[in-house]
Design goal:
- The protein is an alpha+beta fold.
- It has 2 helices and 4 strands, in the order βαβββα.
- Helix 1 packs across helix 2.
- The longest helix is centred in the middle third of the chain and has 15 residues, at 23-37.
- It is elongated.
- The termini are close together.
Length: 87
């Protein structure tokens, strides 16, 4: 199982993006939370997922579920969701 966190940075005239919204910090915090929880999940940063306005975005693979506007609270929700999945 893998969690992809978008870190793409867009520049003016439309500065909304996952990277501008803290995507790099989300990757670090998510990876730390997964490690602490002892989950067998890979966390990787990725380029644009085409959802810039709703970023930072995290996608679960192979399931395909997306979380938008991810912050520390949503990281907890993501971990709870992943814990419920069959291995």
């Amino acid at each position: 199982m893998k969690l992809l966190a978008c870190t793409h940075i867009r520049h003016a005239p439309n500065p909304h993006s996952c990277g501008n919204g803290g995507g790099l910090e989300i990757v670090t915090q998510l990876a730390d939370a997964v490690r602490i929880a002892g989950l067998d999940v890979i966390v990787e940063q990725t380029a644009c997922m085409g959802m810039c306005v709703n970023g930072p975005t995290v996608r679960l693979l192979p399931d395909g579920k997306n979380w938008h506007r991810v912050d520390m609270q949503k990281i907890g929700e993501i971990l709870e969701f992943v814990k419920q999945l069959p291995l």
